[in-house]
């Protein structure tokens, strides 16, 4: 988190979103704590991608993180890197969670 602290010292009052990610919820929560202490104003968080997850597990993951943090969360839906594709229904359920501020959905390559 040294890089985050350094960036924050130069950002001044400009809000800073910090990307975090890990293969377990406990690790994600520790990184979220570290990022907040370092000055993050928001978190960019992809789905954990170590193993396939059910929609319920993904929703519970985001609920857990949102309950734990005091900054807004931006969901990073990037199936190219996570190999998990969020359905429209799941995106809607996640977007309705308190603490979810936005969702980043990068353009995918078309064959």
TrEMBL record:
GO terms, molecular function: 4-hydroxy-tetrahydrodipicolinate synthase activity; N-acetylneuraminate lyase activity
Alphabetized UniProt keyword annotations: Lyase
UniProt entry tagged with the keyword Lyase: yes
Protein name: Dihydrodipicolinate synthase
EC number: 4.3.3.7
Domain of life of the organism encoding this protein: Bacteria
GO cellular component, one term: cytosol
Enzymatic class: lyase
GO biological-process terms attached to the record: N-acetylneuraminate catabolic process
UniProt organism field: Klebsiella grimontii
Gene from which the chain derives: dapA_2
Keyword presence, Lyase: yes
